[in-house]
Amino acid sequence: MRPQRLQDFVLDTLKNTAGAVQVRTLAEVGDSKHPFGIAVTTADGEARWQIIGQLADGERHDHQERPVEGAPAVWTDAVAGDTAEGWLAAAIGRAESPEIARIERWSIREGKRDQGMTLHFHSGAKAYVRKL
After folding, report:
1. 81-92 confidence digits (pLDDT tens)
2. Can you tell me the distance from the alpha carbon of 71 to that of 47, in angstroms, rounded to the nearest whole number?
3. How far apart, in Å, are the Cα atoms of 3 and each of 64, 72, 92?
4. Are 116 and 103 a contacting pair, CB within 8 Å?
């Protein structure tokens, strides 16, 4: 799933997620530095997330995207006191996209404090969603 389509998917998903007060693209909130991303407002405040894509081996940007589907990613629900990263990862996982094979949260890796996640797609592509 390329960044534009992922951004649209996440926007649609979050608009229907409990706890989301407002969901907009980074462009809509005036961020012209990052081409793809979202700004999510919850009761805890606003979090901004940049979306960066990595094509699957052999894929090129001048080729039309070919979605590959499989079993949706296994995910863990956010718990009280979890970070914005946990909430976002749970919301994306709950949507059960058949294109997303795995969701890897960054902050729970040993020795890491960065908030973000890597979405691994069945096509072999990846998306990096990093908190700004």
Report:
1. 788 999 999 999
2. 29
3. 14, 19, 14
4. no
- In the chain, the amino acid numbered 108 is I
> What is the number of other CB atoms lying within 10 angstroms of the CB of residue 18?
7
- Locate the DSSP E strands across 1-132: 22-25, 37-42, 45-54, 100-105, 116-121, 126-131
Mind listing the pLDDT tens digit for each residue in 56-85?
A: 988 888 888 889 999 999 988 877 678 899
Angle of helix 84-94 versus helix 3-15 axis, rounded to 10: 90
DSSP 52-86: EEEPPTT--TTSPP-----SPPP-----TT--HHH
Q: Is residue 77 within 8 Å of residue 88, measured between CB atoms?
A: no
